[in-house]
Write a structure and sequence with these properties.
By secondary structure, the protein is an alpha+beta fold. About 55% of the residues lie in helices and about 10% in strands.
């Protein structure tokens, strides 16, 4: 029996025997992450086994999968490796020779890889469903954190209140989140949320930037559904990382980076919230954003794109027509990145949305907010929104709430931009995990499971953008 069979048996056994015994959402989410890492490991080993039976080819593929786990493009290590590598080599030649990204050969190469990527992802998900019938971080010690937070609040409060309960919530690669039950603290509600930074974050974001923005938005709009800020502590020694207390909002997580709760009301609720956000005056908030968080000119985006390309080239382990074509197409269409400026959320996927009574309960995690083009937020969620409602209907709700008039070209530009950005961030997470493995399974799950899904989505979005451009 192959190693793949053993890994498959472990995945299935975890689902059948362990998941029913888990009570907390955090534990179930951690189990899911472990299972997905095992799934991708099995897939990668299976790829090596499927290589042509020549000694050199099998040795090369086996060495690749054993030494470099989490390959973002398994096509270049599997049976189609010669075809995939020839295509990526040709894409590199086209790019180096100055051929426009709209060239027909570029598009043909992209379509070829996209079809193969989609077939592979479909096979992976079918394999996953065959193992399971349902799917559901390491956090600091609850008792210790609860005690230290209680002492801190007593020092900064005029009475002897208590933190009656602290419950860690699932998710969170760069921040830990806990639901608090508080008793007897002046100026604080009975229910609040603790947001605490995780050391070694992937995105280099800080509550130091997020908290003042929450204060500003709370003061300037009663219509935005966001956590209301109560306090912020910059001293990392108090709880082992900067932290903030914000309001507790009802609801449950609305989805992830690739899917969402199937509710048109939820989609239109997000359209309304983004419309309100983008309509807010920029100048009163400008002082809240460092120069690096004010991305407005074509030159700004060109510099950011080049930095992203260098990071991708450094961290990617396998060549990809999709990535090559995406960088080329974005460079050729930078003119669509400028012209409008708004406060943008920057990470408004449904993993940062609460759904409440089938509608939008809150928009969370403002750590990546900055001054930029409003189409950045719209492009980020474009692909998922089209599975929930029609894009014209979404945009009608956005405009009715005060959203700015953005071009279709700008939306396509930022759809590709944000997916390529996410794919690059995932590669960075893999590097972080391998350099100094964090305790949380989330850091392993992202590069091993989400990287191929992200590349597959990017290929579809890029084909759509290039096809409409040519019409």
């Amino acid at each position: 029996m192959s190693v793949v069979h053993y890994l498959s048996a472990v995945i299935a056994e975890l689902e059948a025997s362990i998941r029913p015994e888990l009570q907390s959402a955090g534990a179930r989410q951690a189990l899911y992450g472990c299972q997905r890492v095992l799934l991708r490991a099995a897939e990668q080993l299976k790829t090596a086994a499927l290589c042509e039976p020549d000694y050199q080819g099998r040795t090369e593929a086996t060495q690749l999968v054993l030494e470099q786990f989490g390959l973002e493009n398994l096509l270049t290590a599997g049976p189609q490796r010669d075809q995939a590598r020839a295509a990526s080599d040709r894409a590199i030649e086209l790019q180096a020779s100055g051929v426009a990204s709209s060239d027909a050969e570029f598009l043909d190469l992209l379509r070829e890889e996209s079809q193969l990527l989609q077939q592979r992802e479909a096979q992976t998900e079918n394999y996953w469903r065959s193992l399971l019938t349902a799917r559901g971080g390491h956090v600091a010690d609850t008792t210790d954190i609860r005690s230290r937070l209680e002492q801190y609040l007593r020092r900064h409060n005029s009475n002897d209140g208590r933190v009656a309960e602290l419950q860690w919530l699932s998710g969170g690669r760069t921040k830990q989140t806990a639901l608090l039950t508080l008793e007897g603290f002046d100026g604080l509600p009975n229910s609040a949320v603790l947001r605490k930074e995780v050391t070694g974050v992937t995105l280099q974001t800080s509550l130091r930037d997020e908290y003042p923005l929450l204060q500003h938005l709370s003061a300037h709009s009663n219509s935005l559904r966001l956590p209301r800020p109560y306090l912020f502590e910059d001293d990392e020694s108090v709880l082992g990382g900067r932290f903030a207390l914000v309001s507790h909002l009802p609801g449950r997580m609305a989805g992830g980076a690739f899917s969402a709760h199937p509710s048109e009301a939820l989609a239109l609720g997000l359209a309304e919230q983004l419309g309100i956000l983008h309509s807010l005056p920029v100048e009163p908030a400008r002082h809240l954003f460092a120069a690096s968080r004010q991305q407005q000119s074509k030159a700004d985006f060109a510099a950011a794109l080049e930095a992203m390309r260098i990071e991708w080239t450094t961290n990617a382990r396998t060549p990809s027509v999709t990535a090559i074509a995406a960088f080329a197409w974005l460079r050729d269409n930078l003119q669509h990145a400028e012209g409008l400026t708004a406060i943008v959320h920057g990470d408004c996927g449904f993993h940062n949305v609460l759904v409440h009574e089938e509608g939008l309960g809150a928009l969370l995690d403002w750590e990546l907010a900055h001054l930029g083009h409003p189409a950045e937020d719209l492009g980020y969620i474009h692909s998922v929104i089209e599975t929930m409602t029609t894009w014209p209907k979404f945009m009608a709700a956005y405009h009715a709430a005060g959203g700015l008039r953005v071009s279709t070209r700008a939306v396509h530009f930022f759809t590709v931009w944000k997916s390529l950005w996410l794919a690059t961030i995932i590669l960075r997470a893999r590097q972080l995990f391998e350099d100094a493995p964090p305790a949380s399974v989330h850091f392993a799950e992202a590069p091993s499971d989400q990287s191929p899904m992200m590349l597959t989505r990017l290929s579809r979005e890029l084909i759509e953008a290039m096809t409409e451009e040519g019409q």
